[in-house]
Write a structure and sequence with these properties.
Oligomer: single chain
Low-confidence stretches: none
Order of helices and strands: HHH
Shape: elongated
Distance between the termini: 41 Å
Helix content: over 70%
Structural class: mainly alpha
Mean pLDDT: 90
Strand content: under 5%
């Protein structure tokens, strides 16, 4: 694998991880609120609603964590197969992200 292919694969895997994490946060919050609202309407107890919301958010969070395992395994495999190329590509990737953040910061200052 050449450097460009490794860099593209790293960017794809990190993008997928970020997307899955963002989705997990939204799904956990939504599931918690929906479960809490349903229990509150059915039982009328705020404490039971809180418990149901926390339980639903926990279950959804665990399911989302299981979805993140595949990209993490792919990242570990890529790092194991090409350690030097991955280190160089990660440095460049972090530099690119830092430059993008700096550009956005300049826009809002």
């Amino acid at each position: 694998m050449d450097q460009a292919a490794i860099a593209a694969r790293l960017a794809e895997l990190h993008g997928r991880l970020e997307t899955l994490r963002r989705q997990a946060r939204l799904l956990a919050a939504g599931a918690g609120l929906m479960a809490a609202a349903a229990v509150w309407m059915a039982a009328g107890s705020a404490l039971m609603a809180l418990a149901a919301g926390l339980l639903a958010a926990l279950v959804v969070g665990l399911l989302a964590r299981m979805r993140v395992k595949a990209p993490l395994r792919a990242l570990a495999r890529l790092e194991r197969e090409h350690p030097e190329a991955v280190a160089l590509a990660m440095d460049r990737y972090r530099l690119t992200l830092a430059l993008e953040r700096a550009e956005r910061w300049k826009l809002f200052r």
